[in-house]
Amino acid sequence: MRYEITGDPLYKDIGAFFMDVVNSSHSYATGGTSVGEFWSDPKRLASTLQTENEESCTTYNMLKVSRHLFRWTKEMAYADYYERALTNGVLGIQRGTEPGVMIYMLPQYPGSSKAKSNHGWGTLYDSFWCCYGTGIESFSKLGDSIYFEEREAPGLYIIQYISSSLDWKSGQILLHQKVDPIVSSDPYLRVTLTFSPKKGTSQASTLHLRIPIWTNSEGATATINSQSLPLPAPGSFLSVNRKWSSSDKLTLQIPISLRTEAIKDDRHEYASVQAILHGPYLLAGHTSGDWNLKSGSGKSLSDSITPIPASYNGQLVSFSQESGNSTFVLANSNYSISMEKLPESGTDASLQATFRLIFKDSSSSKLSSVKDAIGKSVMLEPFDLPGMLLVQQGKDRSFAVTKSADDDGSSIFRVVSGLDGKDGTVSLESGAQNGCYVYSGVDYKSGQSMKLSCKSSDTGFNQGASFVMNKGLSQYHPISFVAKGDKRNFLLTPLYSLREESYTIYFHIQP
Asked: Residue 239's closest CA among 248, 249, 229?
């Protein structure tokens, strides 16, 4: 602020120097910084990954600095930083859509959880750390740095692509920005701008649209009323000057793709420690600590990281039973299958209690209701272990979760109407051993191991082999990928979307 008040360029230089030092040597892939509320040695971040990384107040203040610097310089680097830190360092500090439930620190170590730091998640009425004040303020001003006005000659800089409207008084127009939802299967960010000039408007004005540094020119297009516009290189602004009319429509389509980013650490032994981003979104792997990924044999990350189709959400299910006065769910726990108490959403347990039905007959993959699955042969893929399957190990033996299944039918189950005869229940019959079913027992407690049991006249067998099949407790985020790992695959989703789940954002990526 001293530069703005005094005009002394020394303070402008101090601000720019400070921002450069922090971003070049002390910032994580989120755009956040600090460890235990301090800065440590420059370019040594691989040694700092722990629970007490990235104080939320620090991100809040760095956003303020970058906002001032962009206003003074119009330099793209500050706009790119603002998007990164807002998307990955601010949107994820509130627990889902629960206002007033915030975090102090954003852990970065492999197997982190936002709930597992010295503070964890706060509470609605009994927490008020410094990061509550800045965090709540951050969510009250999400729209304050989308548009920047240039007053000398009417000009407008659009540095963030967020669906919004702006009453641009000096430009004498109402501007409407619409951004299509981003999904992992669509390789483009698509933006449409329309205009409502105010009555009597006669002046021309200029729009400057940010072409982010994270995109590329191949496949990028911009049009005004279907006429192509020349696009500058990434890291530049596309400037369009005209007298805007209500019939004008400006569209922008820019590639959004995967990339890796090395941790800021100049020691050779940490060169393989990298984060994965999809455009501006930092991706987190659902894992309690594994972090070994394969880079693939090709030049593109798409050889080893593939998008999850949106249709897969329609194949996600959870299986539940009542025992005593509690509801239990079928769950994958440490590569074995057991019955666990019904978990809250947004937790590791809710991921572990969700399975994807892979139909043996691919034409049967659409699942509108439980009845659609009856009579079908399926395989069960744990939600948090893509590529693995639930397999049978023989009569009266427990189940396992393995990376690949033999051709002996051990991973095949037939979905049949519940043996208990109740409406809406199903039983899972072995595809290899007729008359044998996934069985829990009766009157059990949490942790009850599941086994394959053959039908008998024992009291309670039909009950123990019948489940209510509902929509999965967890769902794939629209931006979701599967990454090939050394011993297992990883489900990748945006860090900001996580709540209690364990995650890893820095991976050891090897050939």
From this structure: 229
Q: How many angstroms separate the CA atoms of 460 and 439, rounded?
A: 10
Residues in the chain: 511
Other C-beta atoms lying within 10 Å of the C-beta of residue 265: 19
Residue keyed to tokens 């044998």: 436
The answer to whether 465 touches 312, Cβ cutoff 8 Å, is no
Q: Report pLDDT digits (tens) over 201-215.
A: 778 999 999 999 999
Terminal alpha carbon distance of the chain: 48
Write the pLDDT tens digit of every residue in 406-425: 667 899 999 999 999 999 89
Contact 388, 358 (CB under 8 A): no
Contact 404, 410 (CB under 8 A): no
Residue ranges of the alpha helices (H) in 362-471?
A: 461-464
Helix or strand run (H / E) with residue 242: strand 236-242
* Whole-number Å distance between alpha carbons of 38 and 201: 53
User: Within 103-189, where are the H helices?
Assistant: 130-140
Contact in structure between 188 and 182 (CB atoms under 8 Å): no
Total-model pTM:
0.94
- What is the average per-residue pLDDT within 463-477? 95
Contact of 381 with 370, CB cutoff 8 Å: no
Of the pLDDT bands very low, low, confident and very high (cuts 50, 70, 90), residue 405 is low
Average pLDDT for the chain: 93
